[in-house]
Design goal:
Elements: H1 6-28, H2 30-40, H3 46-67, H4 71-80, H5 87-106, H6 110-125, H7 131-135, H8 138-145, H9 151-174, H10 183-194, H11 203-220, H12 226-256, H13 260-286, H14 314-331, H15 335-341, E1 357-360, H16 365-373, E2 376-386, E3 389-398, H17 407-413, E4 417-425, E5 432-439, E6 445-455, E7 460-461, H18 464-471, E8 479-486, H19 495-512
Antiparallel strand pairs: 1-2, 2-3, 3-8, 4-5, 5-6, 6-7, 6-8
Helix pairs in contact: 1-14, 2-6, 5-6, 8-11, 9-10, 9-12, 10-12, 10-13, 11-12, 11-13, 12-13
């Protein structure tokens, strides 16, 4: 039998390398793939799924018009070819992989890991595309990543400080004309007239404006060049300025002129007009692109390098990618696994306040499994009675913020509508509580609740954003979520509520003394 020829041997080796590359890639990002599957399977992600389908149809339509009936054949041919050295594609893939390893080990933020997986995969895909086609694919790639549910995280990490900064600027601008306080007064009037909290930061307008510019850049084939970044900067500044003017007008009408009803009427129109004007400015600055349909936005076009030899051969690049992925898989150490092994434990359960009469109130099996899957180390729920107050309380101990959540969301899951909420300062002035009023769809108040987060070192806060920020440190400490739901409405100013919170806070601190790792 004659020896295998050179071409068949190379084809076989390239096929084995591509298969090994795919297996290593999927194994490295296995947790992201698992989380993505669960995320897009949720009922509330239907809009994102429809958006992804529309983007896929747009990409295929443009590629088909550019390639004609040869699209499928050229795509398969391109994927069968060995990868070609593309510096920016390699840099993008490397950034995504390294970022994924760091985020997994240090932050354990699932949605950020998912986004880095998508970014790294887009960089890897660029090794089988022409440089021009890959560069012009950036808008559609970012639009696909934007279908991930970033909203709550944007509110937490960007919306809260942006809203506070806007309110502070308005308070400084109005100065002595404000009645009833400065920053806090502006925040209160904004909440009262809008019936919203973090959405009024303007961060959702910024996010939506970015998506519109990305879609315009892709449809006009302008790419993400200097013109696009200039349009983004101008549009973002205009959105921030429009939001500042909106809050300024609301504060002036509601606080200085004492016309809260009129401020409520103005809230939505001012927001819509400001957003529309800023986006119009961005689209005008973006202008029209000069792209050509001859450079398709799809796989399949061989890389034209001319007579110059590539910096590294295809075989060398394949070997380098395989070695890098083996090293990345060995280095992958998710923080959630380490926390599960070293999570704190509470010896003998929580020490509830001496004056309380408590009875165990076990969680449903699915609720306990959900908390455990997110990293909760100990969960205890009781029915309590103390002089003047009764209800249920739950304590959730965890070493990761992912096991905690915004407590009012749990109330909403159980059919209670959030009617109002506010942060309260504890009696010692060094801690805060979160008070909420809950009721039915008709707006009748039926219950009240008070919640907070408390760390092992004694830090207490009612702000979920502060809880998350405290976890983004090299050596985070365990925290407990305390949530108390009263049987009947309890006013935020009721001294018994503050006394109850102080008793439970002291009991939690006492329990920490007997906790172990």
């Amino acid at each position: 039998m004659p020896p295998m020829g050179t071409a068949p041997r190379h084809l076989w080796l390239h096929g084995l390398a591509r298969f090994s590359l795919m297996v290593l890639w999927l194994w490295l990002f296995r947790d992201a793939l698992r989380h993505l599957g669960g995320t897009y399977a949720r009922a509330d992600m239907s809009v994102s799924m429809v958006t992804l389908a529309i983007l896929a149809v747009l990409v295929l339509r443009r590629a088909w018009r550019a390639e004609g009936g040869g699209l499928l054949g050229r795509t398969v041919t391109a994927l069968l070819r060995p990868p070609e050295t593309q510096i920016w594609s390699l840099a993008t893939a490397g950034f995504g992989v390294v970022g994924y390893l760091l985020v997994s080990a240090l932050l354990d933020v699932n949605i950020l890991q998912d986004a880095l997986f998508g970014l790294a995969s887009f960089g890897l895909l660029g090794l089988w595309m022409t440089p021009a086609a890959w560069r012009r694919s950036w808008p559609i790639c970012l639009l696909a990543l934007a279908t991930l549910p970033f909203g709550y995280h944007l509110d937490t990490f960007l919306g809260y400080p942006l809203r506070v900064a806007t309110a502070a600027a308005v308070a400084d601008g109005l100065g002595a004309q404000l009645r009833g306080g400065g920053l806090e007064a502006v925040l209160q009037v904004e909440n009262r007239v809008a019936q919203v909290d973090l959405p009024c930061s303007g961060v959702k307008g910024l996010w939506t404006g970015i998506l519109l510019l990305l879609l315009a850049a892709w449809l006009r084939e302008t790419g993400l060049g200097r013109r696009w970044w200039l349009a983004l900067a101008a549009q973002s500044l205009a959105l921030v300025a429009a939001n500042y003017l909106r809050v300024l007008i609301l504060a002036a009408v509601g606080l200085i002129w004492n016309q809260a009803v009129l401020a409520g009427w103005l809230h939505l129109p001012l927001g819509v007009l400001g957003f529309a004007a800023a986006c119009w400015l961005g689209l005008v600055l973006l202008g029209r692109g000069h792209g050509s349909a001859a450079e398709p936005l799809a796989l399949g076009t061989p890389v034209d390098r001319g007579p110059a030899r590539p910096a590294i051969s295809s075989a060398g690049l394949s070997a380098l990618l395989l070695l890098a992925l083996v090293a990345a898989n060995l280095a992958y150490r998710p923080r959630s696994a380490a926390e599960a092994a070293g999570a704190p434990r509470v010896a003998g359960g929580w020490a509830w306040p001496a004056g309380w009469r408590v009875e165990p109130l076990p969680l449903k099996a699915e609720d306990a499994a959900w908390l455990a899957a997110d990293g909760a180390a100990a969960v205890e729920r009781v029915r309590f009675e103390r002089p003047g107050l009764s209800g249920s309380a739950i304590l959730v101990l965890a070493a990761t913020w992912r096991a905690h959540h915004a407590p009012e969301r749990c109330f909403q899951i159980y059919g209670l509508k959030l009617l109002s909420a506010r942060n309260l300062m504890a009696d010692d002035g060094d801690a805060s509580l979160r008070w909420v009023a809950l009721g039915d769809e008709d707006g009748r108040v039926q219950h009240s609740a008070v919640t907070w987060f408390q760390s092992r070192s004694g830090v207490q806060t009612g702000d979920y954003s502060a809880r998350i920020w405290a976890d983004l440190t090299p050596r985070p400490e365990p925290w407990v979520l305390a949530s108390v739901l009263f049987d009947s409405p309890v006013a935020a100013e009721d001294p018994q509520l503050r006394a109850l919170a102080q008793e439970l806070r002291q009991s939690i601190a006492a329990t920490w003394q007997g906790s172990t790792r």
